Amino acid sequence: MKTTRREFLGSVAAGAALIAAPAIVRAQGADVIRIGALCPITGAGGPYGSGMQKMIIAAAEAVNAAGGAAGRKIEIVAEDTQTNPQAAVLAAKKLIEVNKVQAILGTWSSGVSLAVIPLTNDAGIPLMHCSGAPALSVPPANAKGLGFRFQATNERFGRAFAEICEKEGFKRPATMAFNNASGIGNTEGFAKAWKAKGGEVVESVVYEPNQASYRSELMKVLAANPDVIVTGSYIADTTIILREWFQTGQPVKWIIPGWAANPQLVEALGNEVVEGIISVDSVSNEGSEAFKVYDEAYQKAMGQPGTNNVYAAMTWDMMTLLALAIEAAGTADIPAVVAKLRDVDHADGKKVSTFAEGKEALKAGKINYEGASSSLDLDEYGDVTPDFGAYFIEGGKFNRRYIVKI
Amino acid sequence: MIYAQLAVNGLVQGLVVGLGALALTLVFGIARFPNAATGDTMTFGAYTALTVHKASGSLVLGSIAAVGGAAVLALVAYLAVFKRLAGRSVVSLLVASIGIGFMIRAGLGIAFGHQQQVFNVPLSRPIRIAGLAINPLDLQLAVVAAVALAAVFAILYLTPIGRQMRAVADNRDLARVSGIRPERVMTAMWLIAGGVCAIGGMMLGIKTVVAPEVGWDMLLPIFAATILGGIGSPVGAVVAGLVLGVAQEVSTPFVGFTYKIALSFVVLLAVLLVRPRGLFGRIEGVR
């Protein structure tokens, strides 16, 4: 291939423009606070990721519309975790090293959060996530106290499962868990709570992802004649397992976490297969003012009601709470901001539901941000304790029969 | 009895892996590089079948469309990329194939979204044959796979183009001086490889769910089966796929479900230690 002088000059010009571009970006970026949105746009978290990312952006827009936090505008840099730890680590490295973000918000699956948190710890920035793995509360993962969880831990999910099991009068539960921190966390949390109630788990199986069939796993579990199977699973494997279970014809009930037993599952399997399945999910703080504001933003961005995506309410709260802490600290200096996170969520403070309201109230004194996802009240581990809803799938509809408080 | 049932469970999974491995080994034998886009070609086949099945309600039409679509896709990839890179190092071709895989996956993600989709096939109770529970759908899929395999082997071993393909796989230079036109052989090979991928992808899609990553996730077992069967050996690829599938399932009472995948790699290691050329491979001199 021959290069003409014109082509050569053209490529030099293009190269020069490329080199110059980051300088322009840097110049613009001097007075904004950059926040990384690292959501599962693709992969198992795909049904939730877009909404989560859009709510981080929408909450940031609300902050900017109210004049910014500590006088500075917020700029969101978004990346996709692909619900895959390797991809998430690459994206987090890029956010930290190239974009110089001050916090990363919105990681979803536990495997991803566990992979990303060492990076945010090293960078000394907070990671706000919706993962359930108990390991994320304590050292080594949360050695610096920079991890904040806006979702219930899997252990708490497990406890909710045990409560429901008792309430429904099941006697012989078995468990099936996807082999990762979240799946096993769910079923072990359940087994612990169930045994504490004096119950017995008749069989438990841990299975591998991405299998064409789970028939052998099912054979083993069903051979123990359980009356209910409690899972820690995701949607793709749940789809395959339930289809194969239905084909065996052995009657059994299921208790499945809400991220796996969702309307997509009903669509995939049809009403007959999923009839009577109990889907358990943390419930958003639906009566709150903050939820109304979030719901409006969600409808605008996604064209669906905000109740469809509990995780989007969590990411909305992440951005709002972080911005309030920045405002309270009066600086984007991270240690100062982290120190203020619990202050703007303080039990004695004035209740506020939006950033604008909180910014105003901060002038007078302490505030307590009542979130859209839960009342927050981050505990010493940076965890929240939402309530759980027991949804029974009946005729393809999710009917919430009762709320479980643990 | 339980082992027989486990073996039956493993056969179906083995067939999917075997079909993927067959496509991989065909390309390896003739074009001489590991085609990392094999898994994504399977996904493409699954989506094509899904779309046609949704529109027409017929799995037969769906599979025909999938075979045609994926065959054309494989041929286009060859004409647009691999042909131009012919003669370059294996690594360039491998990297190019990874790139093509990325493009297919991303394209499917944009066109169909990343949420899982499923084939709406009626669910049926298993039939009992000699105490074994066998799912009628599995049986149908196995028949489809058997027909596809029979067709591929008939082409390879009973037709002039198949003979030419095997000649090129054996010794490219000798085939050339004997008057075999590599262009025709390559075209036929890519069409067949694409078609085989489509059948495997469709089976996987019907058995599990269809999402842009499903084929890519199958790549590891497919590579394992290809190596186990002896690289470049079509019969070996299919047999190895079945062996791995059955070994995985039958091992579960001993090693549990968590380690069954590791076990299939232990089988791979053991076989390669005893028979470095794989089950059906031949020792090749370096020319």
> In CATH, what is the homologous superfamily of the largest domain in chain A?
Response regulator
Q: Number of DSSP helices of chain A?
A: 14
Largest sheet of chain A: 7 strands, mixed
Helix tally of chain B? 12
Structural class of chain B: mainly alpha
Main beta sheet strand tally, sense and closure of chain B: 2 strands, antiparallel
Please indicate the percent range of residues of chain B in DSSP E strands (runs of 2 or more): under 5%
Radius of gyration of chain B: 19 Å
Oligomer: heterodimer
Counting structural domains of chain B, the number is 1
Arithmetic mean pLDDT of chain B: 89
In what order do the strands lie side by side in the largest sheet of chain A?
A: 7-6-8-9-10-13-14
Q: For the record, what CATH class of chain B applies?
A: Mainly Alpha
InterPro entries (chain A): BCAA_transport, Leu-bd, Peripla_BP_I, TAT_signal
Family (chain A): Belongs to the leucine-binding protein family.
Organism (chain A): Chelatococcus composti
Pfam families (chain A): Peripla_BP_6
Quickly list its features.
heterodimer; A: 406 residues; alpha/beta; Rossmann fold; 2 domains; seven-stranded mixed beta sheet; five-stranded parallel beta sheet; 14 helices; 46% helix; globular; B: 287 residues; mainly alpha; ABC transporter involved in vitamin B12 uptake, BtuC; two-stranded antiparallel ribbon; 12 helices; 2 strands; 2% strand; transport (chain B); L-phenylalanine transmembrane transporter activity (chain B); L-isoleucine transmembrane transporter activity (chain B); L-leucine transmembrane transporter activity (chain B); ABC_transp_permease (chain B)
Account of the 3D structure:
The complex is a heterodimer of chains A (406) and B (287). With 406 residues, chain A is an alpha/beta fold. Chain A has two domains: 30-151 and 286-369, 3-Layer(aba) Sandwich (Rossmann fold); 154-284 and 388-404, Rossmann fold (3-Layer(aba) Sandwich), CATH 3.40.50.2300. Chain A is 46% helix and 18% strand. In chain A, strand 11, helix 14 (355-362) and strand 12 (367-369) form a beta-alpha-beta unit. The longest helix of chain A is centred in the first third of the chain and has 25 residues, at 5-29. Chain A is globular and about 65 Å long. Chain B is an all-alpha fold. Chain B has helices at 2-31, 38-56, 59-82, 90-112, 136-158, 160-170, 172-177, 182-207, 214-217, 219-229, 234-255, 260-274, and strands at residues 127-129, 132-134. Chain B has a two-stranded antiparallel sheet with strand order 1-2. In chain B, a hairpin with a 2-residue loop joins strand 1 and strand 2 (132-134). In chain B, helix 1 (2-31) packs antiparallel against helix 11 (234-255) and helix 5 packs across helix 6 (160-170). The chains are: A alpha/beta (406), B mainly alpha (287). At the A-B interface, strand 7, helix 7, helix 8 and helix 9 of A face helix 1 of B.
